[in-house]
Automatic annotation (TrEMBL):
HAMAP family linked: ISPT (MF_01139)
Name of the molecule in the record: Alkyl transferase
Reaction equations catalysed: n isopentenyl diphosphate + (2E,6E)-farnesyl diphosphate = a di-trans,poly-cis-polyprenyl diphosphate + n diphosphate
GO cellular component, one term: endoplasmic reticulum
Organism of origin: Pseudolycoriella hygida
Key words of the record: Magnesium, Transferase
Amino acid sequence: MSWICESNLTWFQRFAVQLLRCGPIPKHIAFIMDGNRRYASKNNLKTKTDGHLKGFTKLVEILQWCLEIGVKEVTAFAFSIDNFKRSKDEVDTLMQLAKEKFLKLIEDREMLEERGICVRIVGNLSLLPVDLQRIIAEIMLMTKANDRAVWNIAFAYSSRDEMTESVKTIVNGVHRLELDAHDINEDLFKQCMYMNNSPDPDLIIRTSGETRLSDFLTYQCSTTLIYCGKMLWPELNMWQLLGVIFHYQQYKFRFIDARQCLDSYVDNTRTNKKRVESFIERNEKRRTKYLEDLLKTTQTFRCNNVRSTGFK
């Protein structure tokens, strides 16, 4: 199944979308896709894998709906670092499923370029099989210039790991004399994270009735509206999505001032901007080189200080 699908909205749903777009639309929505295995049990599917396949079909649908609604950026929590604790058979199956679906993204290259969709896989890539790392690198490099929409797939991701790697990046920068200790502030910390090129999510939607973030974007959600629905991930429908966005529109104006105040404080605490900007630029080049090297080599990249951020 392709990642790009045609619109399946009814005329009434299209009308509802147009009404919704009269108000503020979230720039960035993040989804915690929970409930695939329970969906498989509930619907008597043969295997848990069938539940994950239904979950992928729903993700494709959601991505299309968000494009039609006008959401510029979507982040989907596909695989947590904690998921590696599941049985070896299930983890191996999920890795194979991810490989198949990511290869499909490469096949969809022309459609991604036509629609201007940039795809980023964010997380600790060094934990993944090397062949999967190389597929991910190709996807990210081939779509990096697309700028009309962004799809982030959080894979082998956790917020604790993301923050740990950000600290390591800054420490390495100070040791290399690329940074001074006085340069360290909230903005620099964020610029060294996996999600450094993304705005904080305006809205996080979690399915399956759970009311926790499960170590997902915990640093980025200080002013984010968090919605926890009882439906399982494959059951999420367009009307439910529109309802959550309508609720967000009522909530948004109460938190605009808080976010702007935080942003202005960060700007006022910067010290040597040129030095910091130079460090961030070098770090971005290291990330790109890491992805390029993944495509060139057949050997496993296993280094304690190499992560999806791409620095050593």
